[in-house]
């Protein structure tokens, strides 16, 4: 029987984690419960009946605004940002495996946007577009603004991945006659695929819920975060909570989907490695 006494640090970290989870998910639990208010319910407890009334009311444009279109814009913008973030981060990770002149300047210039206030970046991009006679829009100026937020995270992740990546795998592939493209396609890419999935998740999720960098760059059409913010000023029914529940559950669905894809790829790679071992 294991009677080893756990150190004090374990209990301190456990308590901190519990407090963190309560602080993070406590407000959502209140929103989740209040979204099921009855038709005559209000914005506070206690519940006045239980129903799905506010979820059906959510999609009525005259009641809550253009929720469907704003969701579509945020979703498409998140996909665009995700694709560019994955591709550029992968190329940057490959490029920085070798030293070249100006590498430090490019690196610090890329991550500098993480320390600049988001609203300043949004304002600056909006002003630049106006100076060039271009109308800010969610698919152009907001797209660029979101990349200043997602690319540094993607690049840093890929730097960490390739910093631990042993070049011996590539050397072995080349010794067996593989070309540079074959080495990348059949050796490098499968090994870093889980990390690329993580970069994709970062890119999509950071863009999907970004508010500050969208505020001055989305033009006349709102993304979902801007639509929710607008609803807080003119909606006085639990439909706002219903929207919060739907969007949060959608975010969890996206996260679980990416995690599932990563687990499937990992199991497939382990199975292939086991089959290869049996063949030997």
From TrEMBL:
Q: What's a GO cellular component annotated to this UniProt protein?
A: plasma membrane
> Which GO biological process entries does UniProt record here?
transmembrane transport
Q: Answer whether the UniProt record assigns the keyword Glycosyltransferase to this protein.
A: no
Keyword hit for Chaperone: no
The UniProt entry, under CDD domains, shows: TM_PBP2 (cd06261)
Q: Please list the residue ranges annotated as the ABC transmembrane type-1 domain.
A: 71-258
InterPro entries, per this entry?
Bact_Polyamine_Transport (IPR051789), MetI-like (IPR000515), MetI-like_sf (IPR035906)
Q: What UniProt keywords apply to this chain's record, in alphabetical order? A: Cell membrane, Membrane, Transmembrane, Transmembrane helix, Transport
Top-rank taxon of the source lineage equals: Bacteria
| Localization in the cell | Cell membrane
Tell me which Pfam families the record gives.
Answer: BPD_transp_1 (PF00528)
Parts of the chain that traverse the membrane: 12-36, 75-96, 105-129, 141-162, 183-206, 239-264
**How does the record classify its membrane topology?**
Multi-pass membrane protein
Which family does the entry's similarity section mention?
Belongs to the binding-protein-dependent transport system permease family. CysTW subfamily.
Q: What's the protein here called?
A: ABC transporter permease
Species this chain originates from: Rhizobium tubonense
Upper classification of the source organism reads: Bacteria, Pseudomonadati, Pseudomonadota, Alphaproteobacteria, Hyphomicrobiales
